[in-house]
Write a structure and sequence with these properties.
alpha/beta, ABC transporter transmembrane region fold, Rossmann fold, 2 domains, 6-stranded mixed β-sheet, 4-stranded antiparallel β-sheet, 9% strand
Length: 615
């Protein structure tokens, strides 16, 4: 149950509610005992027709009270016998009925109050878990997601958290209540008959061992089930994102077969899992009744012996209490099985929550509020996993003076994007360091570092929100005039004004209500509004048509004015005016210089330029 207590660590902020829940559960159990268990001695006296026996009970006076079954029984018999003698059996019966109804009312009132105070815990814990997972998703470096399926991560944040909500959190009330109930019942049973309770203590752990073995098997099945669900969500995510290609290549049948195969495997695992879950209730009931019959047999021997060592009414009372014990024991078993299912989800969630945040702020970060001199890549090498044979970047040295535009060109896989991604610390260097004004970026605060930079990528990353909120994304206290001014600089104001609600128009999922050029200009407007001293432009025009490219390039030229820019480009025509062009191949800088200088060298850049000119 170590993992279960790991989940319960989220309860620590709700101990006031948990304490009230436990208190009211104890009161509910006490009144339950009074209402049922005490009914048997009442009836024993009530059915007595021997008036002399009743008077003999009264004549002894009020019995001395101490906490034991015999003392409670003697006191109840005394007061009930006195009422029968003085007021008759009917009044005694009315008193019994009122007593039982009052106890049942109080039992259910306290039970409801217990559930009332567990509700904030159940829902609060799940809320806190979702919040913590989302925080961690935002903190984890990009390298983490290159190793994971997006669909599986979404499955953990939705299906697995929901599983915890339905299994562990719904069982929380039973886990707090039933053990308390069982302990109180066992305590009363021990008081009534230590001999018979000894049998219960011997037999119940055997039952628990059997239930535990099945529970572990259920947990394994549940874990496999969640993995399959993650894979199904990944296939769905890939399908929705790649429908154009699937239809264009007539691959519907292939994708359908792949989905059906994984869905069938998920169904088979789920069938096994539910069969094991459904075994909880009948198994616990059968084992409980088996223990009860065993106790009845040994108790009956004590009552029916030639020299009885137990009164028949005590045996009936004991069996009644034990019968009451079966319900919470059965509920606890069901809760245990549900918890095992939930723990499989908890393990999957912990893989995210316990994932190492490799890129984090320095212990004592250096304050860096502005960019004044230069950016320097100093002996920078990078591999996605340390110890890899192939380096993505290998011993790169580069200085970028303030206000200069540096273009990175080369074949795909040459390390251009990786080099740019390392500047805002999306990835950290494996060897060497990157300096801004002489300070290693690893020694700065991430928030301060990224505040210096604006990023425009080949694929416009927009959100399902209004145009206004997409442009103002991540910026506080921005005015509408500032947003409009940024849109004008980005050549976006004209088409935004023609939208149905203007700047308040929702642009749809990933901006799918707009053209590629329009989306890119919104991204540029967002960078303009941020007004960063450093720009990273990752092939910002490569996916556009000629007209859109002209508008976007014009917007980029305005954006780059008086700023330090790192431009990644395949279309060499867009970077001919760069202050320096860096030609990369297999993670190494092989050529550098202005456009004119590189053309005269007749090297790799000249070949790339000639190829594009020919095309």
């Amino acid at each position: 149950m170590k993992k279960f207590f790991g989940v319960l660590r989220y309860v620590k902020g709700y101990w006031n509610y948990a304490s009230l829940n436990i208190l009211f559960n104890i009161l509910s159990v006490i009144f339950s005992l009074f209402s049922i268990a005490m009914l048997f001695p009442f009836l024993q006296v009530l059915l007595l027709n021997n008036e002399e026996m009743l008077r003999a009970i009264v004549s002894k006076g009020i019995p001395e009270f101490h906490l034991s079954a015999s003392s409670i029984t003697d006191n109840v018999n005394y007061f009930l016998a006195k009422i029968i003698i003085e007021r008759g059996k009917l009044d005694a019966l009315v008193l019994i009925c009122v007593f039982v109804i009052t106890n049942i009312f109080l039992k259910n009132l306290f039970r409801y109050l217990g559930m009332f105070f567990i509700a904030p815990i159940r829902n609060g814990v799940v809320r806190d878990m979702r919040n913590k997972m989302y925080d961690k998703v935002l903190q984890l470096p990009l390298s983490y997601y290159s190793e994971e399926r997006k669909g599986d991560i979404m499955s953990r944040m939705t299906t697995d958290v929901q599983e915890i909500e339905w299994s562990i959190m719904q069982s929380l009330e039973m886990i707090f209540r039933e053990p308390v109930t069982i302990l109180i019942y066992l305590g009363v049973m021990l008081t009534v008959s230590p001999q018979l309770t000894l049998f219960a203590f011997i037999l119940l752990p055997v039952s628990g061992l059997m239930i535990g073995r099945i529970g572990k098997s259920l947990r394994r099945s549940s874990g496999r089930s969640k993995e399959k669900m993650g894979l199904l969500l990944s296939i769905m995510e890939e399908t929705l994102g790649g429908l154009r290609i699937i239809k264009g290549f007539n691959a519907e049948k292939n994708m359908n077969n792949r989905f059906r195969e994984e869905n069938e495997a998920y169904t088979n695992i789920s069938v096994k899992m539910y069969r094991k879950t459904d075994l909880a209730s009948p198994l616990s009931e059968f084992l409980g009744v088996t223990v009860m019959v065993t106790i009845l047999y040994f108790g009956g021997k004590l009552v029916l012996a030639d020299q009885p060592t137990m009164n028949g009414s005590i045996l009936i009372t004991y069996l009644a209490i034990f019968a009451m014990l079966l319900a919470p024991a059965k509920a606890f078993t069901t809760a245990y099985y549900n918890v095992q299912k939930g723990l499989a989800s908890a393990e999957r969630i912990d893989k995210i929550l316990n994932a190492d945040i490799a890129i984090r702020d320095a212990v004592n970060p250096v304050e860096i509020k502005k960019f004044e001199k230069e950016i320097e890549y100093k002996n920078v090498s990078f591999a996605y996993r340390e110890g890899e044979v192939g380096w993505v970047l290998n011993d790169v040295n580069l200085k970028i003076a303030k206000g200069k535009t540096i273009a990175l060109v080369g074949q795909s896989g040459s390390g251009k994007t990786t080099m740019a991604d390392m500047l805002p610390r999306f990835y950290d260097t494996t060897k060497g360091e990157i300096l801004i004004d002489g300070t290693s970026i690893k020694n700065t605060r991430l928030k301060d570092l990224r505040a210096l930079m604006g990023i425009v990528t080949q694929e416009s990353i927009l959100f399902n929100d209004t145009v206004y909120n997409n442009i103002a994304f991540g910026i506080d206290n921005v005015t509408e005039a500032q947003v409009i001014e940024a849109a004008k600089i980005a050549n976006a104001h004209e088409f935004i004004s023609q939208m149905p609600q203007g700047y308040q128009t929702n642009i749809g999922d990933r901006g799918n209500k707009m053209s590629g050029g329009q989306r890119q200009r919104i991204s540029i407007a967002r960078a303009v509004l941020k007004n960063p001293p450093i720009l990273i432009l990752d092939e910002a025009t490569s996916a556009l048509d000629t007209e859109s490219e002209r508008l976007v390039q014009d917007a980029l030229n305005k954006l780059m004015k008086n700023r330090t820019s790192v431009v990644i480009a395949h279309r060499l025509s867009t970077i001919q005016h760069a202050d320096e062009i860096i030609v990369m191949q297999k993670g190494v800088i092989i050529e550098r210089g202005t456009h004119a200088e590189l053309i005269t060298q007749s090297g790799t850049y000249k070949k790339l330029h000639d190829l594009q000119s020919f095309v």
